[in-house]
Write a structure and sequence with these properties.
single chain, alpha/beta, Rossmann fold, about 15% strand
Length: about 250
Amino acid sequence: MSALGGRTALVTGGSRGIGRAISERLARDGARVAVHYGHNEAAAEETVAAIEAAGGRAFTVHAELGVPGGAEALWSAFDARSDGRLDILVNNAGTAGAREPISGTTEAEFDRVFALNTKAPFFVTRSALSRLRDGGRIINTSTGLTHGAAMPELIAYSMTKGAIDVFTATLAKELGPRGITVNAVAPGVVDTDMNADWLRGEENAGAREAVRAMSPLGRIADATDIGDIVAFLASDDSRWGTGQWIDATGGSFL
């Protein structure tokens, strides 16, 4: 049997970028994957189609997170297309928000970023616990910014992920008696659509070179680099690691 055969996974924000890479890798390892999306149905359907074309199993789950009732809507949609049981939860949906230092961050923008990046995974996970089988896996998306270089223009975003790091460690301690591991994977700069406006194109050649130079490995991360780490954390091979912050920056802050 494949590494995740017979298991069901839910990936929030699973239709694009890092989320899509995670969804596709978990499906390739044998899991049936619920690909969550908030707004882009076409991207979610495309991800499911790609998974199925490769011989995997997947279905879409729609719910807008970061709004009242979002977590309940997600699980209602999930239950309608599954048996209500879950083995792997990946809290990946999030936003960088407006790139502003503290002086330019409005209260409304602060609340929006925290609602999606911190409040949503908290309550999505709370509702997941009655569905998650003993021995299951919870994987949260953090960022290298919580342990590395500070970026004033991403202060609100970094704060949301600092909260996720605390959430990860504390939940690991609570769920350990059930054999459930909880870990956080922390990417640095990844070549995805979210970073396209400043990372792709000839006009951004200098930015790309600067990002490459940050890592001793001398390249920019692809979304599959993160998806492969998440797949390890979702597998039985990671069974003795919990409450951990896993650096997925390619050593950019060494």
